[in-house]
Amino acid sequence: MEKLRLGVNIDHVATLRNARGGAAPDPVRAALLAEAAGADGITAHLREDRRHIRDADMAALRAALSIPLNFEMAATEEMARIALDIRPHAVCLVPEKREERTTEGGLEVAGDQNRLADYITPLREAGARVSLFVAPDPRQIEASARVGAAVVELHTGTYCDAVDAGETDAAAAELARLEAAAAQAAGLGLEVHAGHGLSYDSVTPIAAIPEVVELNVGHFLMGEALFRGLPAAMAEMRRLMVLARGAA
Q: Catalytic annotation on 72?
């Protein structure tokens, strides 16, 4: 079983900055703090409406970090141009709607295969590892392999919502879907990541899925960092991940 990596999403440091305007708090400073605390990668989502991360943040992150930068983005021509200019380690394509508070659901790959295959090609040729953020749905995973993605990131939001609501049966059913999806994706040669909504209460069963090699956690860690500091918040998440992996 591979070591389980922890990617830290720093979007909501930028959310806090943008609520007041100005330059503080600086998401690059948060990313460097996460790097020093042992993060395996940094994720940032440049949304079309620039509600949190901005173009200058992406360029600054790429210049400052020694660990991989995962550029989350919608599959638009504008974002492709920016990614090809910045050349991050990885690009994760996500669905995006202007009215949503956060990413809702997975990318529709099965119904958009020709366009996505063409879209992915120049990103791959530029050296980016392309990831698709998908629901644990066999059709979407099969399509992800067909269009040339290297990675799928499984959307854990439905599972985490059920855990948070105390809906034990719903959480168990969604966990079973995630486990099956991870096995399917790995069998197709895709690297498997997981993320969205993960917390101390929900991370253990996801971390125990043997095919999953990376978890991406953002909003929860930034919230915990307000009370205990980012290194301590990350250390507790890492502890739970390691325990889950050992038990698995």
A: yes
